[in-house]
Amino acid sequence: MRQEAISNEQPTATPHMPYGHHRLEWKRRKWGRSSLWMVALLAFLVILAPALPAQTAETGGQPAASHAQPATIRGTVVDVNNDIVAGATVILKGPGAADRRTLAISNTGSYEFHDLKPGGPYQITISAKGFVDWASPTFALERGEYKIITDSKLQLAAIQTTINVSPPEEIASQQLNAELKQRILGIFPDFYTVYGPSAVPLTAKLKFKLALRTIIDPVTIAGVALYSGFQQAADTPDYGEGAQGYGKRFGAVAADGATDIMIGGAILPWLLHQDPRYFCQCEGTTKSRVLHALSYPFVAKGDNGKSQPNYSSIGGSLAAAAIANAYYPESNRGVGPTFEGFAIDTGERMAAALVREFLLRKLTHNIAHPE
Questions:
Q1: When comparing pLDDT for 155 and 7, which is higher?
Q2: 120: burial class by Cβ within 10 Å (0-12, 13-18, 19+)?
Q3: What's the mean per-residue pLDDT of the chain?
Q4: What does the pLDDT average to over 327-349?
Q5: pLDDT level of residue 26 (50, 70, 90 thresholds)
Q6: What are phi and psi of 264, to 5 degrees?
Q7: CA–CA gap between residue 287 and residue 268 (Å, rounded)
Q8: Using CA atoms, how far apart are residues 249 and 238, in angstroms rounded to an integer?
């Protein structure tokens, strides 16, 4: 301690050294000690310097990554003709499950994904109804990148159409089976009416099936019994009174109907290639519909689809009236009663056609093909 204090004092002159030399020596010693400290400090800094940048990079690396600029992806969904595809679904698949995003495209067709982490891999998939799904190659994103997808053009999907072609005979059979379920108020048969233009011509077998099914229908038989009762009350034809007279009238009415239906609705339509059914016009002016209905006994639809004289209906009525001479009483036979029966039958057909045209469609259940 004492020596340090003495050494820090300015030197004093001695008899052997002049005063100026003593002061110069003191300054040299003091500068030497200061230089030594500076050299030591510089050496320490040189040793420490390589560690500082490393530490800065190490400690500053995380903040730089956490504050990295997010990326953006943008695109427009179009087809191969560059027309906008609206209603598509765009899915972005990222490096993790949390990076998966889904967008429903509006009418503009544009989509955009924001705030995406740099890196990858990323992939865009696009799907739209009627188009083949599209998927982009995988790609990576740079920091702050604004990536535009330009090649997302959707192609139309191939459409597979299966057409089951059935033979006309099978179609006609199916249609007839449906027509045989048509009933007025769900009770009375309406088998001979077609409510629509798509009916297929009947085969010969189907024409006979339709006629026979109408003859044996329980409601038809009940109608014969009721009409025979009216004749019994009017005492016509001249079969007499009582159960015997009613039985004969019942047989005559049944025979009249069966021969008319079978000849005019099956045999002649088969031979002449005509359709025995009534085709409801069901639309148009009232006048045109009335004329259409009144012409039914005289104008038929051929199996070729063309209108032609209704020889089947006229021939069936005349044949039924002529055959009736074989079992009617002698007082009810002859040319006059024959044509009288034909006229009555024709009038009944016209009246029935008018009812079919304007009323029965509203009352008929299970219409087969109401186009």
A1: 155
A2: middle
A3: 83
A4: 91
A5: very low
A6: -80, -20
A7: 30
A8: 9
Give the number of C-alpha atoms closer than 13 A to the C-alpha of residue 120, restricted to the C-beta side. 14
Structure tokens at 50: 């390589």
> Given this model, what pLDDT does residue 25 score?
52
The superfamily CATH assigns to domain 69-154 is Immunoglobulins (2.60.40.10)
Sorted by where each begins, the domain ranges of the chain are 2-64, 69-154, 168-365
Q: Contact, 92 vs 71, CB < 8 A?
A: no
**Nearest-angstrom CA–CA distance, 280 and 207:** 18
How many angstroms separate the CA atoms of 164 and 175, rounded? 16
DSSP string covering 199-213? PPPPPHHHHHHHHHH
Reading the block at residue 331, the tokens are: 């007082």
Question: In whole angstroms, how far apart are CA 231 and each of 7, 14, 197, 228?
Answer: 166, 180, 39, 5
Question: 175 with 209: CB under 8 angstroms?
Answer: no
Residue with tokens 């069936």: 316
Separation CA 251–CA 298 (nearest Å): 29
Of residues 131 and 9, more confidence is placed in 131
